[in-house]
Amino acid sequence: MRIIVPATSANIGPGFDSVGVALSKYLTIDIVKPQEEWFVEHDLEFVPSDRYNLLIKTALKVYPDLQPHHVRMTSDIPLARGLGSSSSVIVAGIELANQLANLELTDDEKLRLATEIEGHPDNVAPAIFGNLVISSYVNKKVAKIVTDFPEASFVAFIPNYPLRTSESRGVLPTQFSSKKAVAASSIANVAIAALLTGDLVEAGKAIEADMFHEPFRQKLVQEFYPIRQLGHELGAYATYLSGAGPTVMILASKDKEQAIKEAIDSLSLDGECVVLSVDRQGVRTESR
Ligand code: HSE
């Protein structure tokens, strides 16, 4: 049995802790065989291989009596880069428990469990459902809408350095005046309405006008401004910080993706530029 979970890009400008899209990078878990103790085979440094691995911790939270297994974990989702790597592991852990204990969890049950563990639904929701998901988590209640992301390309510049979500959340204000909160949420409303009606030009303007987190975080990612500038010159819809960063995401029409990638490559920044597309499926299993 194989479990596959897509990467995710959260926030998309003003959708802080609420909006995310599933993208075409993947975490794969192969369930190899039952054995005495848990063993997570992987090639990551500083990541546990026993029951303290986040994958197994999550699975045991869902179902403490699981039979230990040897599992193999491979992923092309870079760690601590704003592409939902830990959310993908949490979703995979829930699916692992679901499969091994035959729990028959619904997607909404998976979302509730994953959100409780992660604390906000913006990455875990698209990792479960695929596509674009708008969600909220208030008073321990999760609500979500899953919808098609309009046809577009995501050109991701992934810096060579990690940025911990805790550090990136640490620079955010703890309070907004009601005037600022109203302005910030009106921008978010327009961004979502524009995405839902397929108006990527209007969506792009609202995405770049975020007031909730990007103005405070951009100083943590020095590549952000040159890339946004380049996006403007090449007619991209928007450039935003993916999740808590440091990945910088350019949203553009498909016919512009190659030119944008080449222009970013020619800046010779310290990192990698990849073109991603929307994953429309979310977490899935394959029997092998
Ligand atoms: N919404 C989260 C943030 C995503 O921006 O901090 C990363 O967990």
TrEMBL record:
Molecular function per GO: ATP binding; homoserine kinase activity
Keywords: Amino-acid biosynthesis, ATP-binding, Cytoplasm, Kinase, Nucleotide-binding, Threonine biosynthesis, Transferase
Pfam family, one: GHMP_kinases_C
Secretion signal, residue range per the UniProt entry: none
Subcellular location: Cytoplasm
Listed EC numbers: 2.7.1.39
Main location: cytoplasm
InterPro entries tied to this protein: GHMP_kinase_C_dom (IPR013750), GHMP_kinase_C_sf (IPR036554), GHMP_kinase_N_dom (IPR006204), GHMP_knse_ATP-bd_CS (IPR006203), Homoserine_kinase (IPR000870), Ribosomal_Su5_D2-typ_SF (IPR020568), Ribsml_uS5_D2-typ_fold_subgr (IPR014721)
Every GHMP kinase N-terminal domain range: 54-130
GO biological process: threonine biosynthetic process
Binding site for ATP: 78-88
SUPFAM superfamilies listed in its UniProt record: GHMP Kinase, C-terminal domain (SSF55060), Ribosomal protein S5 domain 2-like (SSF54211)
Gene Ontology CC: cytoplasm
Domain GHMP kinase C-terminal: 191-264
Domain of life of the organism encoding this protein: Bacteria
Pathway involvement of the protein, from the record: Amino-acid biosynthesis; L-threonine biosynthesis; L-threonine from L-aspartate: step 4/5
Parts forming coiled coils: none
Reaction equation(s) it catalyzes: L-homoserine + ATP = O-phospho-L-homoserine + ADP + H(+)
Gene3D superfamilies: 3.30.230.10, GHMP kinase, C-terminal domain (3.30.70.890)
PANTHER family in UniProt: HOMOSERINE KINASE, HOMOSERINE/4-DIPHOSPHOCYTIDYL-2-C-METHYL-D-ERYTHRITOL KINASE
Family of this protein: Belongs to the GHMP kinase family. Homoserine kinase subfamily.
Record function comment: Catalyzes the ATP-dependent phosphorylation of L-homoserine to L-homoserine phosphate.
Name listed for the protein in its UniProt record: Homoserine kinase
Gene: thrB
